[in-house]
């Protein structure tokens, strides 16, 4: 029997496990502990996805590490844990470095700023068989069978085709690419722009401002991507403008929500002080997913006023707007799409 492993009982990890199963594969969902395995088995998925029992009998939920038997049977593995947990999760998983691996994580390594596939290469995985999956892929929609498309990038085109077949099912369509750098960078960089878009929504700026942030943000993402070896087409595709649009506009996006909460005057949760005793594992990081959900509403929140004090502070709305206007409107450099 050949099977796919998915690392992480996260929203995206459980969704990918369900997609692989629906497309006809056996899946081993590798989780952190027996307790977590028990919870996922009992729920048939993840309660926070709110979609009920989504995992069928071909998904085997297993605490790390994989058994040697499981490890030997793998056709591939998907990594779907937050970026700060990738190194530790892969090491704990017992995943053999000979297995083709695809990162579904959107982010860079906090310590080294490495892309996730570079991190995987540093852990011994063959770069030619290591890839990235990205696109406008809100797990809450995909797990409910709503139509969506993604792109999987692997240097070896035959392997890309195999991943495309393994993941495509029903209304989930997967395109293949070889631009690993571009797909991965686009997925990480769009989060930054989505936070700015969220702040704009939170300040009540409206769709014009968000569209401007997205357009100029895409230009910056593209310039940085090209400088780091990515292909222009990737930024004009699903992993680039596609994901940027979904993340900046959907109220389901945690990055957008993070920006909205910043605009509402909230501070990100802080990690515990260094002296505080903490259990083994990566330090918790303030991240969009650490904040509570906003009320389910797609309408932009009105700007909040600050508490009054002797000297009234300028409103975040005014500061943001005036600094945006002060920034010189430069012409796009040659690599850009010529539009502004
Ligand atoms: N949620 C989504 O719609 C999508 C998420 N992604 C990416 O997938 C990665 C995971 O994101 P989500 O699925 O949204 O996460 P999530 O917010 O659903 O889960 C993160 C939480 O899962 C728990 N967790 C479970 N297994 C873990 C492990 N092995 N290591 C660390 N924490 C673990 C922790 O409590 C952590 O805070 C991120 O890099 C994200 O950018 C990519 C596409 C879509
Ligand atoms: O990447 C995503 C959708 O494609 C998920 O976005 P958030 O991480 O902002 O929720």
UniProtKB/TrEMBL annotation:
Give, as in the UniProt entry, the pathway in which the protein acts.
Answer: Membrane lipid metabolism; glycerophospholipid metabolism
**Has the keyword NADP been applied to this entry?**
yes
**Residue limits of the Glycerol-3-phosphate dehydrogenase NAD-dependent N-terminal domain?**
5-157
- Keywords from the named record: Cytoplasm, Lipid biosynthesis, Lipid metabolism, NAD, NADP, Nucleotide-binding, Oxidoreductase, Phospholipid biosynthesis, Phospholipid metabolism
Q: Where is the composition biased (Low complexity)?
A: 306-324
Q: Where in the cell is it found?
A: Cytoplasm
Biased region (Pro residues) positions are 283-305
Q: Which reaction does it catalyse?
A: sn-glycerol 3-phosphate + NAD(+) = dihydroxyacetone phosphate + NADH + H(+); sn-glycerol 3-phosphate + NADP(+) = dihydroxyacetone phosphate + NADPH + H(+)
Q: Where is the Glycerol-3-phosphate dehydrogenase NAD-dependent C-terminal domain?
A: 179-267
Residues binding NADPH are 11-12, 32, 106, 139, 254
For this protein, what is the EC number?
1.1.1.94
Q: What GO MF terms are annotated?
A: glycerol-3-phosphate dehydrogenase [NAD(P)+] activity
From the UniProt entry, list the residue stretches annotated as the region Disordered: 262-340
Q: Does the keyword NAD apply?
A: yes
> Coiled-coil annotation: which residues?
none
Provide the binding site for sn-glycerol 3-phosphate.
106, 135, 190, 243, 253-255
Q: Which residues form the active site?
A: 190
One Pfam family, please name it.
NAD_Gly3P_dh_N
Primary location group? cytoplasm
Which family is this sequence assigned to? Belongs to the NAD-dependent glycerol-3-phosphate dehydrogenase family.
NCBIfam families named among the record's database cross-references? PRK00094.1-2, PRK00094.1-4
Q: What does this protein do?
A: Catalyzes the reduction of the glycolytic intermediate dihydroxyacetone phosphate (DHAP) to sn-glycerol 3-phosphate (G3P), the key precursor for phospholipid synthesis.
Protein's UniProt name: Glycerol-3-phosphate dehydrogenase [NAD(P)+]
Please name the gene that encodes this protein. Answer: gpsA
């Amino acid at each position: 029997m050949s099977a796919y492993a998915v690392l992480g009982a996260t929203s995206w990890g459980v969704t990918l496990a369900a997609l692989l199963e629906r497309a006809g594969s056996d899946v081993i969902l590798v989780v952190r502990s027996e307790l977590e395995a028990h919870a996922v088995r009992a729920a048939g998925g993840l309660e926070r996805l709110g979609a009920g029992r989504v995992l069928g009998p071909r998904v085997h939920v297993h605490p790390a590490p994989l058994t040697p038997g499981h490890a030997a049977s793998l056709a591939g593995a998907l990594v779907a844990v937050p970026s700060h947990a990738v190194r530790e999760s892969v090491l704990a998983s017992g995943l053999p470095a000979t297995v083709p691996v695809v990162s579904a994580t959107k982010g860079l390594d906090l310590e080294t700023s490495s892309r996730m596939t570079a991190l995987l290469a540093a852990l011994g995985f063959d770069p030619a068989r290591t890839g990235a999956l990205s696109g406008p892929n809100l797990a809450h929609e995909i797990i409910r069978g709503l139509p969506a498309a993604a792109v999987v990038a692997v240097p070896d085109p035959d392997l890309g085709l195999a991943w495309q077949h393994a993941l495509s099912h029903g209304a989930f369509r997967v395109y293949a690419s070889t631009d690993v750098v571009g797909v991965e960078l686009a997925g990480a960089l769009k989060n930054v722009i989505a936070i700015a878009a969220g702040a704009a929504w939170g300040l009540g700026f409206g769709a014009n401002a968000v569209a401007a942030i997205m357009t100029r943000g895409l230009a910056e993402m593209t310039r940085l991507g090209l400088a780091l070896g990515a292909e222009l087409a990737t930024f004009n595709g699903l992993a680039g403008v596609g994901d940027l649009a979904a993340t900046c506009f959907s109220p389901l996006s945690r990055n957008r929500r993070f920006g909205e909460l910043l605009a509402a005057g909230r501070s990100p949760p802080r990690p515990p002080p260094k002296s505080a005793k903490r259990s083994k594992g990566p330090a918790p990081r303030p991240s969009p997913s650490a904040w509570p959900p906003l009320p389910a509403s797609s309408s932009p929140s009105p700007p909040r006023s600050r508490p009054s004090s002797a000297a009234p502070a300028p409103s975040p709305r005014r500061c943001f707007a005036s600094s945006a206007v002060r920034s010189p409107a430069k012409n796009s450099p040659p690599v850009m799409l010529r539009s502004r």
